[in-house]
Amino acid sequence: MQVLSPNIKPVLVAIGDSHSKFWSGIDSQAKIARGTFPNVDVLHLGPVTAHNINSFGTTTMGKERLIAKLSRRTRSVDGFIVCMGEIDCRTHIVKAAIKSRMSLDHAVEETVNRYFQFLDWLYKTYAKPLLIWGPTATSPIDVKKSHANFPRIGSAIERNYATLQFNKIARELVETRENFAFASIFDEMIAPDGLSLPHFFYDSIHVSRIALGVAVEKAKIALAANNLAHLVEAFDPWAVSESIGFTNVAVGLSPIIVSGPKRRTEKPLGISRRKAPLFTLEDSAELHVHLRDHYILKTVELCVNETLLKPVSIALYRGDDGCEAELVWRGDAVPSDKTNIIIKVQNDSPIKLLKVFGGGDAVTVNELKIMARSFML
Q: What does the alpha-carbon distance between residue 307 and residue 305 come to, in Å, rounded to a whole number?
């Protein structure tokens, strides 16, 4: 395996079901433009299963999606993190075993063998190392409600046993292959009674970023143990440039619409919705965006549905609602025949809170960017 130049950091691509988004480092199922690790990208393929991922023409079209996404990709790929199997263990394996009158062990083995047909195809086709991320523990027992999109079939013990066996067989199969590695945090997620520890989840299904530290450590150990240590630097969070650039510090933040005493939290910013409206700022309403830290801003960029008929105001504050919110600058987006509006910030004060005030008419916004001066790559 070719070792990368010391000046070039490797890029890993996490592919698979919704659990691939764990590697963004953000507790959200929304599409995230930038995650915790600059050199770990996420390609979510939909609700794909380990059992069927190697087949064309499935309802999820997972294999077709993967091929299409990779064919359009312009950034390099130095290896894959493959994340599948949780759906199989939670939804399909117990049911299949009962219907076919076979043991859980046999049902798991059948699924893992089919999964590795796909993994062998993936490695043969793209010639990139694979880190197989073992499926995580099933939904905690204290989850009372079942979401239609995330069914749970069988008891928590049965589902976790299926996951245990899945990881065991997958680990054994990885040991027989070169340029494959296997890592899992399943054991850390299980209590002595075999049930899932609830603090690992941020919803009823998905693992929280609180597990990211141990997950990265497990991944690094697995890569190093399989002669793939050159890929470890993909988990380096230090994406810092030698020169000042600009970065959108609004990505992943949930803006708040304030209208009188009413407050409504909108979906996170920086999400691609194929030009669907992001939010509508009604007459006399305000939009509040609380930045994670203080930033020196360059521009505020709005993409609106229609040309502005009245000015829209931008106000920048040194503090936020939790402390004295000192207004430091205010600017206007004047009426224009353009739908992409850029407001240049004429102030170098560090900003924590941004407010957008409607101009008297409802304004539908498709995109909002808050560009800050930054050394971040």
A: 7
- Average pLDDT of the residues in 125-139: 96
Q: Please name each of the domains of the chain with its CATH number.
A: 12-238 (3.40.50.1110), 246-376 (2.60.120.260)
Tell me the two tokens of residue 288: 């509040």
| pLDDT tens digit sequence for 244-291 | 999 999 988 889 998 888 898 988 887 554 555 677 777 778 889 999
- pTM (whole model) above 0.90: no
Residue ranges of alpha helices (H) inside the chain are: 62-72, 86-87, 93-100, 104-126, 156-174, 212-225
Rounded alpha-carbon distances, angstroms, from residue 248 to 25, 115, 175, 251: 17, 38, 42, 6
Q: Which of these, 77, 82, 174, lies nearest to 126 by C-alpha position?
A: 77
> How far apart are alpha carbons 248 and 250 in whole angstroms?
6
Q: Which residues pair with 340 in a beta bridge?
A: 303
Taking the CB of residue 63, how many other CB atoms lie within 10 A of it?
A: 20
Average pLDDT over residues 298-316: 84
Angle between helices 93-100 and 104-126 (to 10 degrees): 130
**By CB neighbour count within 10 A (0-12 exposed, 13-18 middle, 19+ buried), where does 41 fall?**
buried
Q: How far apart are CA 217 and CA 229, in angstroms?
A: 12
